[in-house]
Amino acid sequence: MSANDQDHDGMSRRKVLECMTWAGTGVLWTVAGGVPTSLGLVGEAMAQTSGFTFLQISDSHVGFDKPANPNALGTLEEAIGKVKALKAKPSFMIHTGDITHLSKVKEFDDAQQIISQAGLQTHYVPGEHDMIDENPGHEYQERYGKTAKGAGWYSFDQNGVHFIGLVNVVGLKAGGLGNLGDEQLAWLADDLKGKSASTPIVVFAHIPLWTVYEQWGWGTDDGAKALGLLKPFGSVTVLNGHIHQIIQKVEGNVTFHTARSTAFPQPAPGTAPSPGPMKVPDDKLRTMLGIADITCKVGNARLATIVDTPLQG
Amino acid sequence: MKNFGTGRGAFAAALLLALVSALPAAARAAEIAVKIDNFVFTPQKITVKVGDTVTWTNADDIPHLVVATGHFRSQALDTDDKYSFTFTAPGTFEYFCGLHPQMTGSVVVEAAAPKAGATQ
Question: Model's pTM, two decimal places?
Answer without folding.
Answer: 0.81
